[in-house]
Amino acid sequence: MSEAITFSLDGKTVTAAEGESIWQVAKREGITIPHLCHKDAPGYRSDGNCRACMVDIEGERTLTASCVRQPSEGMVVNTETERATKAREMVFELLMSDQPSREVHPDPESDFWQWSYKVGVSASRYAPCERPVQDISHPAIAVNLEACIACNLCERACREVQVNDVIGMGWRGSHAAPVFDLADPMGLSSCVACGECVSACPTGALFEKSLMDEEAKVRAVYPDETVDSVCPFCGVGCLTKVSVKSGKIVQVEGRDGPANENRLCVKGRFGFDYVASPERLTKPLIRRDDAPKDQNIELNGSNYLDVFREATWDEALDRAAAGLQESYAAKGGAGISGFGSAKGSNEEAYLFQKLIRQGFGSNNVDHCTRLCHASSVAALMEGIGSGAVTAPFRAALDADCVIVIGARPEQNHPVTATYLKQAAKKGSKLVIMDPRHQGLMRHADHGLIFKPGTDVAMLNAMLNVIITEGLYDRQYIAAHVDGFEALKEKVSEFTPEAMAPVCGIDAQTLRDVARLYASSGKSIIFWGMGISQHVHSTDNVRCLIAMALITGHIGRPGTGLHPLRGQNNVQGASDAGLIPMVFPDYRSVEDPNIRAEFEDAWGRTLDPQRGLTVVEIMDDIIADGIEAMYVMGENPAMSDPDQHHARKALTTLKHLVVQDIFLTETAWHADVILPASAHAEKLGTYTNTNRQVQIGRPCVPLPGEARADWELLMELANRLDLDWTYSGVPEIYEEMRSHMPSLAHISWERLERDGTVTYPADADDTPGNEILFGDSFPTEDGRARIVPTDLVPPAELPDSDFPFVLTTGRMLEHWHTGAMTRRATVLDALEPEPVVSMHPKDIRAAGFTLGQQVTVETRRGAITLTLRADRDVSSGMLFMPFCFSEAPANFLTNPQLDPYGKIPEFKFCAARIAPAMAEAAE
Ligand SMILES: Nc1nc2c(c(=O)[nH]1)N[C@H]1C(S)=C(S)[C@@H](COP(=O)(O)OP(=O)(O)OC[C@H]3O[C@@H](n4cnc5c(=O)[nH]c(N)nc54)[C@H](O)[C@@H]3O)O[C@H]1N2
Ligand SMILES: Nc1nc2c(c(=O)[nH]1)N[C@H]1C(S)=C(S)[C@@H](COP(=O)(O)OP(=O)(O)OC[C@H]3O[C@@H](n4cnc5c(=O)[nH]c(N)nc54)[C@H](O)[C@@H]3O)O[C@H]1N2
Ligand SMILES: [Mo]
Question: For a FRET experiment, which of 10, 131, 282, 292 has its CA 20 to 30 Å from that of 695?
């Protein structure tokens, strides 16, 4: 089938692989053929409509578009005949007649102009046609249709690459032009602003507003330089190309990384200007002696200089270290705690946990993974001996059946979502299970909207079907899995008929989905916070692991278990030991041999007992235990559950050091604030959800007196007499790696050279292993273990006082506590105010009106915000993101913990909703 074809190209004998176009062979051979409607990037189909790439084929009457034409054996192709070059010139001249002149063109540097000059066309003899006016209704993207050549690349970008289906080509003939959702303007369409169309457009008809002078409607900004880096937002780990002008980021484009193949989402592409926000911390601050540690001080409208005074670095660092040391002197390691960051690099995470452990002999060091996938990691470690994904998310493209449960990738892992949609388009069966409807369900074979908090019932019913119908893989179980008999016994009572009323999905659908997953050749499971943020979350994950193990859907291409990791470096920060129970690489702090290795390396006696977790630390502070805390790059005053309690803990602390880039809600409670580096200002490695280790590079200078996080950690360590002497990030990486077998064969040098390496790698020169556990599991005996589960209800059920289920989560445009994205102009313009979403039917039943102010209340607190109608939210539920400091969702959430993962129940509590006080009085 895949025989090479030999043909002649400009007089040279060349070969083409199966499916290669003439254009692609020419490129490989170093022959340049102009192109406009053809984009030379993964995921783009050639269309051959613009005729800019025409070539001459001997014996053929007409010229042919080389981007779509495949060569045949013995064909004689010439790219430079007079006929071909003249025709191409003519194409450019005709297109140019339709463009604004270069002086008033939206992008005089666009591919169109560059090619025009290369083919020797600078003006047109033809009269221009009439063109529509510019549409600047969207906050990020200008639509300059006067420059459109109707090549439909934007439509392919939108529909085929990102699979968003917003752009279509409307009108006919010379009037053909992109339209948005069949209705202009763009700003009112359902566009999610991934910007793929902007990156595809060859003329600047779709163009970044950040590069334009809006008044003059032309390009005004040309970058000084471009830096290769990685996106600072989510665990997908998109590689980026960051363009900088006069020390400021002006544009971000995708690069061809293993996770993103040039794709980005709205945050990665347009959410960059938080880095340059005037609200960045630029000077060290120390709390004024007379400033009270009021719980809600920032809400009282204080000016920060009423509360803090500016200090020199020496003074601030001395004070920060002295406060920690005082508590250490008083209480030993038990008096100290630290929250490190999954937004920072691996090196920063490693140094942070080292500082707390080496400096204070304390294991009270944790980070946001505790609020995130801690339960997934607990269940995976217990079941298969490893907490990371067994396959990258692009494995979905090889799968016959893809399950997504308790995750909302279109909002939270948008580039992953593009691959899931592509998998569905090419025939994989997609199953989405979630108590809320979501856009991805449009692409799914099954969208199961079940009752929140009933995952175990639903999944055990599926396990019941798989076992009673004999759809499990006996051989696989015999070879690799323990605990099958106990599972069989346990799930025998969980018949689909018995579980249907519990989970709200009918028995037949449960059977269908169970059969589909088990009988498909290759099935893969993705999950998110809907699984992991419950008091029974470890059980939820145990069910998913059991499904994969009894069907043998693990360890082969197109199969596996993939908890979609959240923060850009939560995988890496966890790997680096930012966890109270383990040193780097998940090695127990309670194991004397392991501890001895670190005691030797760090020259101090280390804490032999596991430390406290995020929520436990807050409780311990209030119980007069811990009295000092160091927070680097987290915002617990917004992200921890039950804020009245969490903020009380922060104000109770004797000493709080906050190292951040903004004066966050947490920083308001601090004694010392250390202004730190944003992602774009520093060097470091980040590990994404696929276990791909990638380098982020400095693009812009630090603002004011702000300093790199790793330098601040070293300054503090040396004030604690730890004698750290790191010369830079590569040295820290290598020290960290010396304690991490998982990073064997992945030297700094290799990362510099290869850009991305997946861990684990078997040798210095072979690619890392993407798919794990084909032969055995990293448990003591190499076998996996099933842990059967029972039904555990959510900790707080609705009742007559609090009749709604409140669930919290995210929105596409905002990042967690909003610290970064509320300060990103485009993102904040898209979602500017706090909202609670409710089903229109419930809104009508309650007699509310859209957009009115409502108060949502739980047993822990009340907040007032704007009511939004949202058909995705099931009747009886309320949904709220936790990014708005004006109405912090975590004033309401329940801090009850899962006993294994110690994760709070962010996804379920009982609530009521009423018109806001002021409105009620009207
Ligand atoms: N835009 C944006 N992207 C982000 C982030 C962000 O803040 N903003 N944060 C990042 C981080 S750290 C993380 S962890 C990820 C999180 O990404 P996701 O895991 O997708 O997070 P959520 O939106 O919190 O919740 C996922 C889904 O759980 C569903 N759910 C609620 N209750 C239940 C239940 O009882 N059972 C099941 N099965 N599902 C339920 C919700 O309806 C929701 O669709 O996103 C990352 N990406
Ligand atoms: N109600 C509710 N609450 C939740 C969740 C939920 O679904 N519902 N989800 C939970 C989950 S999954 C997570 S992961 C947590 C996230 O909780 P957090 O990690 O607390 O949230 P972020 O807003 O990401 O906080 C990151 C902080 O780091 C700062 N920062 C960014 N870059 C840098 C840097 O390079 N250096 C330094 N020093 N600082 C930096 C930012 O300004 C910000 O203050 O929230 C949890 N809380
Ligand atoms: Mo997370």
Answer: 282
